[in-house]
Design goal:
Its main location: membrane. The structure is a single chain. By secondary structure, the chain is α+β, with helices and mostly antiparallel strands. The chain has helices at residues 232-269, 303-306, 308-311, 313-316, 341-349, 364-403, 425-429, 432-458, 473-494, 502-523, 531-551, 556-578, 593-608, 616-639, 644-669, 676-696, 707-711, 725-746; strands at 5-11, 20-25, 30-35, 37-40, 46-49, 51-55, 73-77, 86-92, 104-108, 114-119, 126-132, 140-145, 163-167, 170-176, 184-191, 220-228.
């Protein structure tokens, strides 16, 4: 048993010019202070305390002397020209050593800090120090220090040694045996003289009651409990759970592919091979019958010009699919291969009823090359984005480990399991799902791409008129984006804080944007955005997100500008979608030509045909979409949410869900079918997203608040004693994104035996 002595002093003098000086001399050190004890706060405010209580550095019993033999000298002096009365009391602490799994209650104040000793039991390698209080204020600091004298237990020096964190109602520090060679440490509790560090009020000026005596006005009741942390076996179980859980998706994919292969082989052996081989590729030729799509009387085009495949048969005939990258002509990705395409593009795209053949007239090889740029560009972006991010978070983690300041990173400290130099390995491990499922999606897309190329080599050129055009560049980009979301989310969770939150959301913006682009590209392959303009748009969004994090808290001017940009961008994009990219503000050469053209379009399309727009379905979608986006803009302008990055992500996700719902409704309305696999993926997506969002909204920390306020939200682990709610969100969101990607990949597999001039565009 270690003995400790506590010295209590009190003086009636409030004269700061002549304080009473106390010097305590021990065998191993000297401790000194003055009364009144002065603490300094913000703006050089001072707080004086007439009562001071300090615990002296303890001494362990030795064989030469008993446990209670300690020689202590206390020197009391003052330069005051008058007598000063003081009170001195020396007591022996009965409960100086903390015990495992046993709560201990005590009281502390700025002038009366407390610290206690804890020794590791033989079978415990890691413990969690849990501290709770019923009162939010006064703000306090919990510190873990090695057995070294003197102990730093005052507000101005508690940060000089060990690991520490600020606290309001709750704090938790994980301590490992390997960090303390003596297998013991001090737990120090300091009450701060002001509360601004914990989110309290900030002193308004430098003027204050300089001679005011505080004494016992800032006392705080605390309870400390030290419990064993998890064992190494739990780490192993958690890693097996993480990897095997997602590797089961690989097994499921192999089973589905094998079952499909068996079905195709049986049909082939029976001589009744289906027009599609399950990969979305036709494998048999059908005679092409010329027919004019119904409802295409406006700007009607005959069959020879509305079937892109037939008109493009000349350049493609005799060229195998494997020669996509062999032709130097294909290096140009932004021009049309049909000489007359510009002359009839306006006529085709402004028909009342559009069919896929009207919007798939470009050379298939050129369009595929164009969409592959998405894949190569996102790889370049990922490398240049990820490398400095990794370097930065390594620096953050190093600073935390060297300084011991646990207020830098916003962990869930009640479920933060360290490994090596990492403070919260569980939050990093839970992102493995994004990387594994992103790679699996790339393999699935690669399989479809290979089967598509083989089928193209074998089939008749006229069958190009059937099904949705197969361009896989965007799918590859989506897979890379999912993997990078896992990498950057893991980087963010190395040290989550205000400065690096955009790492966790940047690729989420890109995933949502790529999904919308892919959904639009499905039936508009010739008029989708180029990779350069798409990624430039994402760059603008990320810039706005950074500006929002910096200026979006209280600056009204930023929200006004952002809301205007949001509304104008929605209107501009809606116009391009409504007119299939053929809306142009051109007119006479006069300065008023642009305005005259805009007024004419507004009058003819919005006033004359208000009751019956030319493109009703598109109009309904765009009206609903604009209402949603304007609602977001108004909400942001009124409430100015502090989490601006999540606010923008919400805008992207809502627009994606709205467009996906519209697409599926229009698909069913057009008498198209949902095959079992896409139907299963849709149901799985809805169920998993619902479960994931439930855990997402279980807030466990918040960098929008002070570190002490954020710790009030901390909660224990809920899965395997290793993962918390946010880790479960990582697992489920990875699966939900994977199923979402499969929905986009398989949604139109039912159209592989349908002529393109029979597939409607919406």
């Amino acid at each position: 048993q270690v003995d400790a002595v506590r010295v209590y002093v009190k003086s009636s003098s409030e004269n700061l010019q002549y304080p009473v000086l106390f010097v305590v001399r021990q065998q191993k050190g000297v401790l000194s202070w003055q009364v009144p004890l002065i603490f300094r706060g913000l703006y050089q405010r001072t707080y004086n305390y007439q009562e001071v209580s300090r615990t002296l550095c303890p001494s362990e019993p030795t064989p030469e002397r008993g446990p209670s033999d300690q020689i202590i000298f206390v020197d009391v002096s003052s330069m005051a020209p008058f007598n000063i009365t003081y009170e001195l009391l020396v007591t022996r602490l009965e409960n100086f050593q903390l015990e495992t799994n046993k709560a201990f209650n005590f009281t502390a104040s700025p002038s009366q800090p407390q610290y206690f000793l804890y020794k590791f039991p033989q079978d415990v390698d890691s413990v969690i120090i849990k501290v709770v209080s019923d009162a939010v204020y006064p703000c306090s600091v919990v510190s873990v220090q090695d057995i070294v004298c003197p102990v730093y237990d005052l507000d101005h020096n508690v940060e000089f040694n060990g690991v520490y964190q600020s606290m309001t109602k709750q704090a938790a520090i994980t301590v490992q045996r390997k960090d303390f060679p003596g297998e013991q440490f001090f737990v120090v509790f300091v009450i701060k003289p002001e509360d601004y560090a914990c989110g309290g009020s900030v002193p308004s000026s430098i003027h204050g009651n300089v001679n005011r005596t505080w004494n016992l006005q800032r006392t705080k009741n605390l309870q400390v409990t030290i419990v064993p942390s998890i064992k190494k076996s739990v780490y192993i179980q958690a890693m097996f759970f993480s990897f095997l859980g997602f590797l089961s998706f690989y097994l499921g994919s192999v089973v589905v592919a094998f079952v499909h292969y068996i079905r195709v082989r049986r049909k082939a052996s029976a001589g009744r091979l289906s027009p599609e081989d399950g990969s979305g590729i036709r494998t048999s030729s059908h005679p092409i019958t010329a027919s004019t799509p119904e409802g295409s009387s406006y700007g009607a085009i005959d069959e020879s010009s509305s079937s892109g495949g037939r008109q493009l048969s000349s350049p493609e005939r005799g060229l195998p699919a494997g020669s996509d990258t062999d032709s130097s002509v294909e290096e140009e990705s932004d021009f049309d291969t049909m000489p007359e395409i510009e002359s009839d593009k306006n006529v085709i795209r402004t028909k009342v009823f559009l069919y896929l053949s009207d919007l798939s007239r470009k050379d298939r090889r050129i369009v595929s090359k164009k969409y592959k740029i998405y894949f190569w560009n996102i790889i370049t972006i990922a490398v240049f984005y990820a490398l400095p991010v990794i370097q930065l978070v390594i620096t953050y983690q190093t600073v935390v480990n060297v300084t011991g300041n646990q207020d830098i990173c916003y962990y869930n400290f009640l479920c933060a399991h360290p490994l090596g130099v990492l403070s919260a390995f569980n939050n990093i491990l839970s992102n493995v799902g994004h990387m594994l499922l992103g790679f699996l999606f790339l393999l699935i897309v690669l399989r479809r791409d290979i089967l598509h190329r083989r089928a193209m080599e074998m089939k008749d050129v006229y069958t190009l008129d059937y099904g949705i055009p197969k361009h896989f560049g965007l799918f590859y980009a989506m897979g890379i984006a999912l993997m990078m979301e896992g990498v950057l989310s893991a980087c963010y969770h190395v040290c989550p804080n205000y400065s690096n939150f955009q790492f966790d959301t940047s690729f989420m913006y890109m995933i949502a944007g790529l999904c919308m682009l892919k959904l639009y590209q499905t039936r508009h392959p010739d008029i989708n955005a180029s990779a350069y303009s798409a990624y430039a748009s994402f760059a603008v969004v990320i810039c706005l997100a950074v500006l929002g994090v910096v200026f979006g808290k209280n600056d009204m001017w930023f929200w006004i500008i952002f809301s205007m940009i949001h509304v104008l961008a929605s209107l501009a994009l809606s116009t391009q979608i409504y007119y299939m990219g053929r809306f142009k503000i051109d007119g006479p050469d006069s300065d008023l030509g642009i305005f005259r053209r805009a007024a004419m379009v507004l009058y003819t399309d919005c006033i004359q045909q208000c009751s019956r727009p030319m493109y009703m379905d598109r109009m309904v979608l765009l009206i609903v979409g604009n209402l949603v986006n304007w609602s977001f803009a108004i909400f942001g302008l009124v409430y100015r949410p502090r989490d601006f990055a999540s606010y923008i992500l919400g805008i992207f996700i809502c627009n994606l869900l709205l467009y996906l719902a519209f697409y599926i409704i229009m698909k069913l309305r057009s008498s198209e079918k949902l095959l079992p696999i896409p139907l299963f993926c849709i149901v799985a997506t809805a169920v998993v997203w619902a479960a994931a969002l439930y855990f997402f909204f279980q807030t466990l920390s918040s960098w929008e608040e002070t570190p002490a306020e954020s710790r009030e939200k901390n909660r224990p682990c809920i899965l395997l004693g290793f993962f918390d709610d946010h880790d479960v969100w990582h697992f489920l969101s990875a699966a939900a994104l994977f199923f979402s990607f499969l929905v986009l990949l398989t949604l139109d597999d039912d159209l592989d035996a349908v002529r393109r001039d029979k597939i409607p565009v919406f």
